[in-house]
Amino acid sequence: MSRDAMSRTQSGEFVSALERGGLTVADGQKVIGNKDNLLAQSIVDLIRGQGSTTSGSQFLTSAGFTRQELQLENLQVWNQSWVMQGGFYRDNQIRAAMVTSPFYSWEEPSAPVVLCWTANDLVQTTRQSVGALRQVYGHKLEISPEFRIDTEHLAPVEGAPEFQPNRLWWEVLDVDANRNKACDAVPPATAGGIQVIQAAAHHPDYTRRMNGDDVAYWDVPGLRLKVPGRSEPCAPYVYAGIINRLRLGVGWASNAGSDYAGVVVRR
Length: 267
Description:
Layout: H1 8-20, H2 25-33, H3 38-47, H4 68-79, H5 91-96, E1 113-117, H6 122-137, E2 141-143, E3 154-156, E4 168-174, H7 194-202, H8 204-207, E5 217-219, E6 223-225, E7 234-240, E8 246-252, E9 260-262, E10 264-265
Parallel strand pairs: 2-8, 5-9
Antiparallel strand pairs: 1-4, 3-6, 4-10, 5-7, 7-8
Helix pairs in contact: 6-7
């Protein structure tokens, strides 16, 4: 037997470790068989002594985005708290999502990877997403009273992809796209919706860098809000103010500015 080969005892230990983590042998085979998989690379790095998944610096890219490992931990915490009513997803479902995680590209610093989820409908998903923001930002989160989360006021933009309930997946966003472009001019097929709010929850170190110049504020072109007293459609936006405050606001969908990006999904 090659010195690099697993012994029968080692193989048994590997299977036992998978089972303790709530994973199957098939899950392990997916990891082993995909050399480009992030989890596989993380394991290789740990074995070679090139890093620790518990080190804070390991979780942030140079642009300030949270790495996927910590996003999974975030969702586990939110999943077991009041944010998602105490366990919307099973822990093994969340852990297994790492197998399908794409790589963050260092050549595209404004294209973060975001772990996204949906609940039964858009309203419930939005409430959970805002709950996650509250856990991350606490008293430094400001939400416009015009951001009303109910079926009467909140809806996806017309032409958006059909809502898929109870879904857990990774998304790659472009958070510097469509400068000087109004939300209603962003193509609905790729317009960022609930994913943008969830990105703000996952990536607080990045949002703290927002200045409207080299780091844009975020429009949410994939959502529309009806605001009493306003005749035109409105859309949410994410704005980082002074003292690390985050504002979830509402503005005209027809407004455009160079300090805001109309965030889109990479498809």
